[in-house]
Amino acid sequence: MSFAWANSYEPKSAFTKWIDEKLPLPRLVYNAVGAGYPVPRNLNYMWNFGVLAGFFLVFQIITGVVLAMHYAANTEVAFGQIEHIMRNVNYGWLLKYAHANGASFFFLVIYMHIFRGFYYSSYKAPREMIWLLGVVIFLLMMATAFMGYVLPWGQMSFWGAKVITGLFGAIPVVGEPLQVWLVGGYAPNDSTLNRFFSLHFLLPFVIAGAVILHIWALHIPGSSNPTGVEVKKESDTVPFHPYYTAKDGWFLGLVLSIFAAVVFFAPNALGHAENWIEANPLSTPALIVPEWYFYPFYAILRAFTGDLTIPFTGIVLIEAKLLGVIAMFGSILLWFFLPWLDKSPVRSGSYRPLFRIFFWIFVVDMAALFYLGGAHAEEPYILLSQIATGWYFMHFLVILPIISQIEVPKALPFSITQAVLGSDDDAHGSKSGGGDKPEKVAGALPGHDDDGSLQPAE
Amino acid sequence: MTIRLGAIIAGLGLTAILLFWSLVPGVFTLANEGLPEEPDYYAFQEEHLSPAGGFAFEGPLGKWDYQQLQRGYQVYKEVCSACHSLKFVSFRNLEQIGYTEAEVRAEAASWMVPGIDPKDGSSIERPGLPTDRFPKPYANDVEARAFNNNAIPPDLSLITKAREDGTHYVYSLMQGYNEPDPEDVAESPDFETPPGLYFNEYFYNINIAMPPQLLPDIVTYSDGTEATTEQMAADIAAFLTWAGEPALIQRKQTGWFVIAFLLFATGMGFLSYKTVWAEKKKKKKA
Question: What's the ipTM?
Answer without folding.
Answer: 0.93
